[in-house]
TrEMBL record:
Protein name: Secondary thiamine-phosphate synthase enzyme
Organism: Brassica campestris (Field mustard)
Region Disordered: start-end pairs: 23-42
């Protein structure tokens, strides 16, 4: 196998900072993220979110409230958040200025035509249903978030959004799976 690097000179040095050191002794090394029990843990919870009007809604506080106890038992891992619906979506975006949520809804409504004059064949569930499926596919129905020292490892201005793409508010179910040490 030949690896070709662009540019002149030797290949660049790659520096990696590890937060998990298998050789660490968790009983004596307070900086270690290794689990004293030595094995991975799993936790899973299904959360029913209350009906929301159409648009993008910050749901981080609701999610964290429901998983806080389990989440606190993980030093390092991943949280997988899965929405069990095809006409809503999940995304991570700004958690401070609600104008970002409104602008995102405006953008989605601009690029995905809606109403009786839209070109969609799937209209049995209403004129907003097919556009909701397309919007759901654009953002997706799942997120993976790092867990660090018992907390979701998102940035300061990041939050989990539920994007409701239907006109009629509907309760939504989210399955949160935690895995780590």
């Amino acid at each position: 196998m030949t690896i070709i690097f662009s540019g002149v000179g030797p290949p660049p040095t790659l520096r990696v900072r590890s937060v998990f050191t298998p050789a660490a002794n968790p009983a004596t090394d307070r900086g270690s993220m290794a689990s004293p029990s030595g094995g991975p843990k799993w936790a899973q919870k299904t959360i029913t979110l209350p009906p929301q009007r159409r648009g993008c809604h910050l749901i981080t506080p609701m999610i964290v409230k429901e998983i806080r106890q389990d989440l606190s038992g993980f030093n390092c891992g991943l949280a997988h958040v899965f929405l069990q619906h095809t006409s809503a979506s999940l995304t991570i975006n700004e958690n401070y200025d609600p104008d970002v949520q409104a602008d995102t809804e405006t953008f989605l409504n601009t690029i995905v035509p809606e109403g009786r004059s839209a070109p969609w064949r799937h209209t049995m569930e209403g004129p907003d249903d097919m556009p909701a499926h397309i919007k759901s596919s654009m953002f997706g129905c799942q997120l993976t978030i790092p867990i660090t020292k018992g907390k979701l490892g998102m940035g300061t201005w990041q939050g989990i959004w539920l994007c409701e793409h239907r006109d009629a508010p509907t309760a939504r179910k989210v399955v949160v799976t935690l895995n780590g040490i």
